[in-house]
Amino acid sequence: MDRIFHSATEIKNILTLGKTFTLIGGCFDLIHAGHIHLFEYASSLEDLLVVAVLSDNYIKKYKESDRPIINERQRAKMVASIRYVDFVYIAETSPNSYETLFLLKPNSVVFGNEKSNTEKIQQRMETITESSPNTKTHLFPRYKAEEISTSYIIKKIIDSRIGLFMN
Q1: For the ranges 31-35, 52-56, 61-65, which has the lowest average pLDDT?
Q2: Is 139 helix (H, G, I), strand (E, B) or coil?
Q3: What is the DSSP track for 9-53?
Q4: What is the pTM (predicted TM-score) of this model?
Q5: Phi-psi region for residue 130, left (φ > 0), alpha (ψ -120 to 50) or beta?
Q6: Angle at 87 between CA 128 and CA 59, to 5 degrees
Q7: Please, are residues 35 and 112 in contact by the beta-carbon 8 Å criterion?
Q8: Burial 86-101 (b: 16+ CB within 10 A, else e)
Q9: In the list 5, 120, 135, 143, which could disulfide-bond 37, CB 3.0-4.6 Å?
Q10: pLDDT tens profile 97-123
Q11: CA of residue 156 relative to chain centroid, distance
Q12: Domains by residue range for the chain, with CATH
C-alpha cells in the first residue's frame, strides 16, 4: 500500500476506524536528528502517525526564496521511509488550519515548544479548540543534544564552501 497521499481528504479516506492518530506537519527539507526525534515522540502518542509535508508552493510563502532545497515528492518519500511514520500527505495548506483539523479530527497534534513562537502556538491551540475540540495538543521541545536545524545545516555547508575558496 502506498503511504504517500496528495491531500488531507485522501488521508481521511484511508484512516482505519478504531485507530487513533497523531498529526504533525512541516517542511522536512533536509532530514536530521531533530526530525527523527520528533517523529519518534509523535508516533508514541497514538496508534498511527500522519505527517503533512508542506508543498513547495506553501513553503515559498514563508521561507527564504531558495527553499525548499528538496522538492515535495522527494521530501514526502524520505519522510514516508522513516519507520515511525505511517502515512504522509503533501499539504497545500497548513495542517493546523481550521479546515484541515475539522476534516481530519486527529486525536493528537504536536507543536515545537519554543519561546520564539509562543503567540503562534496560542493561535494554533485556539484553532484546535474550535475545529476539533477532542484533539490533544502536545508541546515538544526542540532537539538539544546538539545544534541542528535545516538552516544550520545550510549555513554550515555554505561556510565550508567559502572556507575552501579562502584557502
Answers
A1: 61-65
A2: strand
A3: HHHHHHPPTT--EEEEEE---S--HHHHHHHHHHHTTSSEEEEEE
A4: 0.86
A5: alpha
A6: 65
A7: no
A8: bbbbbbbbbbbbeebb
A9: 143
A10: 999 999 999 999 998 776 666 787 888
A11: 23
A12: 4-166 (3.40.50.620)
Q: Please name every residue paired with 112 in a beta bridge, in sequence order, or none if there are none.
A: 140
State how far the alpha carbon of 6 is from the alpha carbons of 3, 57, 80, 105, 131, in Å.
Answer: 10, 14, 13, 18, 22
Q: Tell me how many degrees the CA angle 41-34-101 measures, rounded to the nearest 5.
A: 55
- Sheet hosting strand 87-91, strand order edge to edge: 4-5, 87-91, 48-54, 21-26, 108-113, 136-141
Count the neighbouring beta carbons within 10 Å of the beta carbon of residue 107: 18
- 19, with CB counted inside 10 A (0-12, 13-18, 19+), is exposed
DSSP structure class, residue 136: E
First to last CA, the chain: 51
Q: Which residue has the cell 506553501?
A: 58
The residue among 20, 65, 71 whose CA lies nearest residue 46 is: 20
Is 43:49 a contact under the CB 8 Å cutoff?
A: yes
Calculate the dihedral angle through the C-alpha atoms of 77, 83, 84, 85, rounding to the nearest 10 degrees: 30
